[in-house]
Amino acid sequence: QQQVKQSPQSLIVQKGGISIINCAYENTAFDYFPWYQQFPGKGPALLIAIRPDVSEKKEGRFTISFNKSAKQFSLHIMDSQPGDSATYFCAASMNNDMRFGAGTRLTVKP
Amino acid sequence: GAVVSQHPSWVICKSGTSVKIECRSLDFQATTMFWYRQFPKQSLMLMATSNEGSKATYEQGVEKDKFLINHASLTLSTLTVTSAHPEDSSFYICSARDSPAKRRQYFGPGTRLTVL
Predict the structure, then answer these.
(1) Which residues, 6+ apart, have CB-to-CB distance to A93 below 8 Å?
(2) I want to staple B80 with a disulfide (CB 3.0 to 4.6 A). Which of A14, A73, B68, B88 is the partner?
(3) A42: pLDDT confidence band, cut at 50, 70 and 90?
(4) Which chain A residues have a beta carbon less than 8 Å from that of B6?
(5) What is the phi/psi pair of residue A104, to 5°?
(6) Which of B4, B21, B58, B105 to mutate to test the interface with A (most CBs of A within 10 A)?
(7) pLDDT band at A2, cuts 50/70/90?
(8) What's the confidence (pLDDT) of residue B41?
């Protein structure tokens, strides 16, 4: 049972463009929504996270938009750079339970 | 920032042998540690959750007798893959949390296990 659905599976963006990745969740008990960046052969690293009482959070070039009623949230990467090329995972968490989306492989072309 | 290490970073073993993977929180005390498995080009799947001094809680479908988890101290958790088989080959990642009140998990760099 996939509790967090992530799209697209892969994404190609030109340098300087905006990368947008979307996630949807089912369980309304989730109360913490992080985004992770993972490079090949490495563990995931937290990029940014949001709680459901906030509709948007921005940290540098990364912004999370959160729609509680639709049970959806998205990651926007502004001014995308080749160094942003990685796999991005959204997640949803409650208590000790964290469920990950399937991941989006982002390629930023120079 | 909080740092989590794993050892070894990669291991190759023969089928039938056991392999132990260590996960350490280097600069904080981890009240809870998590073990994930990740197959190539796939997402992270939670295997088990462990609290220091307690038995681990395994996710449905994860064999607790095959994947032994020990969380003996606030800075160390170990995962032992017993009688490993080729299908156990995967990327194993641990994470740690420093407070039950906080959701953030700090991830280790992962351990690549290859069973021949």
Answers:
(1) A30, A31, A32, A33, A34, A99, B103
(2) B68
(3) very high
(4) 43
(5) -130, 125
(6) B105
(7) low
(8) 87
